[in-house]
Design brief:
Order of helices and strands: EHHHHHEHEHEHEHEH
Oligomer: single chain
CATH class of the largest domain: Alpha Beta
Helix content: 40-55%
Shape: globular
CATH topology of the largest domain: Rossmann fold
Structural class: alpha/beta
CATH superfamily of the largest domain: HAD superfamily/HAD-like
Radius of gyration: 18 Å
């Protein structure tokens, strides 16, 4: 069976790496140190969003006096310190999936809202940076997820039509962005389970990237060798 898919685009935080527990803690701690309290529900609203959107939402909730830049700098600093101290676990199935895609000749890109310097550092520290042909961050596009810009920019750099791209995402906004880009969205939930709407947009919802062993032949045609 011949497949129409030629590329896979990955999100990073919460999909490739178990980042969300540190990210949630860092946001809450930074806001607390500035005199604000963040609920779990509010944190869920900013997951996967870019900085501009986060600033608008948080200032709407806490007021225009919120020192967003100062909070952001602090939460990055304390988050990075904890990440370097404790390490950042890679999600189950990541290395196996990247290796299998590489063996199939599938092109691989990264689309992340994380700053480039931190994204590259994480990939290098995990020893998987060599699998990615291109890395696009929210710094490279006009609008972040759920706008499709970041995924469309990855496909442009890979020189592959959007309809030939499969996207793995863990967030609602990521699935929406991939769908709007005309790609094949696959959700691997991390801290938020898909709603009925998101399930309707996703081609498949997996419990783990380990489940892709059975999915790859369906997506890319040729059987996968063990």
């Amino acid at each position: 069976m011949l497949s129409s898919y030629r590329a896979v685009i990955f999100d990073m935080d919460g999909l490739l790496f178990d980042t969300e527990s540190i990210a949630r803690w860092a946001w809450k701690q930074a806001l607390k140190d500035h005199g604000y309290i963040m609920s779990d529900d509010l944190y869920m609203e900013i997951v996967g969003r870019d900085l501009t959107w986060r600033e608008k939402l948080l200032k709407k909730i806490y007021g225009e006096d919120l020192p967003f830049e100062s909070v952001t700098i602090q939460r990055i600093e304390i988050g990075d310190e904890r990440e370097l101290r404790e390490g950042l676990p890679m999600k189950p199935g990541v290395l196996d999936l990247l290796s299998r895609l590489s063996d199939l000749g599938v092109m691989i890109g990264l689309a992340t809202g994380t700053a480039r310097i931190r994204a590259v550092r994480r990939l290098k520290n995990a020893g998987i940076n060599q699998y990615f042909t291109t890395i696009v961050t929210s710094e490279d596009v006009a609008e972040g997820k759920p706008a499709p810009d970041i995924f469309l920019e990855v496909s442009r750099r890979l020189n592959i039509d959007p309809v030939q791209c499969v996207v793995f995402e863990d967030s609602f906004v990521g699935i929406e962005a991939a769908f709007q880009a005309g790609m094949c969205p696959i959700m691997v939930p991390d801290i938020e389970q898909p709603s009925i709407k998101i399930r309707g947009l996703a081609y498949r919802v997996l419990d783990s990237l380990e489940e892709t062993r059975e999915l790859l032949p369906e997506l890319f045609g040729d059987p996968i060798k063990n």
